[in-house]
């Protein structure tokens, strides 16, 4: 009997090692799944949505915090490259920071995404006025007139800017 248990010992050792290996694999797969699930949920919860970022950016713009707004809007356009509103607001913030080239590029991106974006057309028209290009501003006004036959805020805003002549400035 003693000789029989000694001869089975290598088999028993192999069996124990195999069970241990399986347990390790099982534990690792359970833990990696839990970590993956925890990481996925946490990332989603920590990362603000595009809508939240846009709301925050608009608040920053209202308060005159143009650089902070640009940071938020940049995050939006990294998440959603074809977000015409975000590009429009980037153009607005850049214009307020006296960066006409960056402003123009942002408005152009918005208008490539949505050629009828009323906000981009109005703000771009204001940029044209500030660059002493009233003919281009007038062209945007015509486009807005066609888009808003019954009038709209963007049309009224650009018309008022053209009428006042206040936006003309030297860069």
Description:
There is one protein chain. This protein has helices at residues 2-46, 50-62, 66-79, 84-96, 100-113, 118-130, 134-147, 153-164. It is mostly helical and 171 residues long. It folds into two domains: 1-47; 50-164, Serine Threonine Protein Phosphatase 5, Tetratricopeptide repeat (Alpha Horseshoe). Helix 4 runs antiparallel to helix 5 and helix 5 packs antiparallel against helix 6. It is elongated. Mean pLDDT is 83; it is low at 32-45.
CATH topology of the largest domain: Serine Threonine Protein Phosphatase 5, Tetratricopeptide repeat
Number of domains: 2
In the CATH scheme, the class of the largest domain would be: Mainly Alpha
* Shape assignment: elongated
**Nearest-integer average pLDDT:** 83
Structural class: mainly alpha
